[in-house]
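Review form for a predicted model. The reviewer records the input and the model, then writes brief findings.
Reviewer: anonymous (R2)
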Amino acid sequence: MKTTVSALRFLVPFFLSAVLTGPAAHAGDDGSTATVKLSNPGKPATLRVDVPWADIKITGVESDTVTVESTIDQKGAKETRSDGLRRLDDEVTFELTEHDNVVNLSLAGDSAWGNHDAEFKLSVPRTMALDIKTEAGGDLTVKNTDGDIEISNMNGAVMLEGIAGSIVVNTMNGEVHAIYAKPPQKLVSITSMNGEVDLRVPADTKANVRLRTHNGSILTDFDETVLKTKAEGKGSGYNYGGDAARMSADAARAAADATRMAIQVAREVKREVERAVREETDSDDIAPTPEAAPRAPRVPHPAHAPRAPMPPITGGKVVSGTLNGGGVDIKISTMNGEITLRQTSGTVHSSAVNPPDGVTVTFQDPDKFTDVRENGSNDNSASDLDELQACLQQAASPALAAGQKLAITITDIDLAGENRLNQPDQIRVMKDVYPPRVSLKFQLIGADGKVLKEGERKLQDLDYLAQSGRPGSQEPLFYDKQLLKDWARKEFKTGS
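Model under review:
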């Protein structure tokens, strides 16, 4: 019987010692909202985000302000605790500043790396340029912007919807999906060491394309008379600059996986510590808080270690050519993953890409589902349901032709692993006897209203632990999402 041996126990002494000796990041019940106004409205502006780890969602709007909603507090906000205590150290907070139309968002506090529940929702001027960097990872979503976008991410999915400007995306581990609202007029460059890349552009886009992958297919739905290509190489394997480069990439990927695993454990342990402290405080009589003594000067924190550069991807399978006679450069490279270049049906408006047009996913009696519970709880996880819904919508949408509709109803979910209650670590136990299972029914309707395909399916992956070494396999819901993606690809022939 296969059991995933928790490497986390070996990481805890090295990683958590640094995390837990610092303060546990505290987010208020409602988080915080902050707004800054551009000093020169109407002039070019840039948003710079540089954080260790966070899920970030950015939406372009008609405005001259940047608004941030976060699950953590803004720097300088006064915290009020129900137990009457006040904090003497610096909690992890975010800082939002503006100078000469450059807006900066960063984390501040004694242990910025110790906060891994941070979420940011930003609304920005539609034409604003974006420069987003994360040092450990997090999922990034950008919607409805016309400005240029530059993203550097270690771990996590990147989703760009309704965009119009240049994009330069570099990620070590994660899928990249980009949907253009109108033909791009500037460079489109996407590089992912481990993860599929899906780019959608309007049918009238004029471009010079260059697509490269070592392990994965290169696919398109453009007609061969429109997209004229040739294969430049038939190399295979991990030959991209020699053995040293290969070892560097493998080491970087392993380090990224280790970081992600350690962060997950840090998050759970810190929650337990906070819970224990709250219980202890609630049960004791609290003496009046004495006047605080002057604080000694703080020792400056060391600067972040420089990010390891992503090894250049060379060799492999290369397809190049012209789309509609040539034009802007479109360059896509991935070491391990599929590349798909699709056409959107005319101009994509923001309201048509979220959720993916034509795909609806609903849950029937989710309270009766076998297991979609929060770790250590009997309650269903609404966030897990939302993630699985979005995953299935994204995976199935490429199957639809113009005017088609796909309705999917999920009738049961049994997440991979076993959720053992009342355990101090509150981490799912992954064994081959606990495979991911999903029951669903679906109906595909054509543009003329006729049913093209329908049925009921019971999905399961009895050999899911064979994927335990894949990049991202330590992420929550990895195996469950993979089950849904595999079904969509096989059922509707997406990406195959």
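Findings: Helices lie at 8-20, 243-283, 382-396, 478-492.
Further findings: The longest helix spans residues 243-283.
Recommendation: see findings above.
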